[in-house]
Amino acid sequence: MVSLRRVVMVLFLASGAGHPMKPHRLSLTHSLVLHYGLYKKMMVFKPYKASQHDMCRFHSEDYIDFLQKVSPNNMQGFTKSLNTFNVGDDCPVFPGLFEFCSRYTGASLQGATQLNHKICDIAINWAGGLHHAKKFEASGFCYVNDIVISILELLKYHPRVLYIDIDIHHGDGVQEAFYLTDRVMTVSFHKYGNYFFPGTGDMYEVGAESGRYYCLNVPLRDGIDDQSYRQLFQPVIKQVVDFYQPTCIVLQCGADSLGCDRLGCFNLSIRGHGECVEFVKSFKIPLLVLGGGGYTVRNVARCWTFETSLLLEESISDELPYSGELYRFQNSFWLIHGCKDAVCTETITLQYLEQIRQTVFENLKMLNHAPSVQIHDVPSDMLNYERNDEPDPDERGAEENYTRSASHLKLSQRAASSVTESSCRRLPMSSMMVTMTMTKRVMLKFEPKGVGLEGDCFVSVLCRCYQKQMSCDVTS
């Protein structure tokens, strides 16, 4: 039995109320985690807020500057920019938009930094996973792509990062960002066809240039259930890990692939969705777990609470614990069995599954070897652990309100300060990658930048110290 150290999880208490993905699902998840007592198995950290500089690691300065300035009160003066940056319909302007983006992005970024310094082996941010955002524009309820920014941070220390996406929608923003590099392999399981958003993710989209065959898409039909999903997911991921040999994994756990999701069309149960998380965890590779889609709020909270327990290796009751939020589950007071299957609209045949599996495996055979890079020193981390700025008084008030509602949840703000830069070997910035957006290629540059500790959301870090340690020692 491996010893438990810590786990990182990000939850918003009062931010982004106008966002279409209903951030209240995070508060509901937080309530279940507390009342199941799972917080006792985790170290809890207050997250950093990502700065404009941090977001510009991937996004254009004009776009981030626009997000920082626009508000419901002045948006009439930004008509041209709203069209240019695709903000309006499925990505509306709401009060606190930039603050919302800063919090979930900073939390994912902190989780990546914790993994880099080996403070934890598993970092969770259920508020992250917004995989549609592009370099120059918002898309599909996503404004800032916290996944890409976190992966860029991980690549400072890890020669190969594997990205796995089990959201019902294709992870197009992440795929596009790393389409030309072999340093990141993207694998997405999603609904494809019949003009389903975002319309990308054909199995023949395999990457380009040095990234050719390092992009893997598994398009699925309506109504796929646990058994059919498992028959594809487990052999494909095992093969990918064997071929690519990642030193870190990022897992996007969009819960809109559950049955009865308002925008979904799959038949996955909470247990089936959790099996994917548990299977990825079984490789004992450093893991960043993120949220994503999910539009039936009570089922999203059930799913992510159950998966938190799986990552902690803690058994919890199927009967929901009593709390002030219990009424929101609408008289279905069960954790795993509270999510019922949707009506299956298509028959998933063994022939269909085998056809997809064979095509995917043929693409994997084109990977000759796991790419390697030389190890050199790199600039300091995006997050500066040494920063000791005093928090804003208003932020402290928010923290006090939180403490009163969960006084038994202990916060540790100084645990990361003991980490030294020499504790890990680092990778060369010159071999990072080139991002591709709208046929443009831009070399990413990094500069040290500190980010404050203010915020009313909290990162709880789930960490495991595995007996099997992943080495960053690679040869050129």
From TrEMBL:
Binding-site residues, substrate: 90, 140, 295
The enzyme's E.C. designation: 3.5.1.98
Gene3D superfamilies: Histone deacetylase domain
The reaction(s) this protein catalyses: N(6)-acetyl-L-lysyl-[histone] + H2O = L-lysyl-[histone] + acetate
GO cellular component: nucleus
Localisation per UniProt entry: Nucleus
Keywords of the record: Chromatin regulator, Hydrolase, Metal-binding, Nucleus, Repressor, Signal, Transcription, Transcription regulation
Family assignment from sequence similarity: Belongs to the histone deacetylase family. HD Type 1 subfamily.
Protein name, as recorded: Histone deacetylase 3
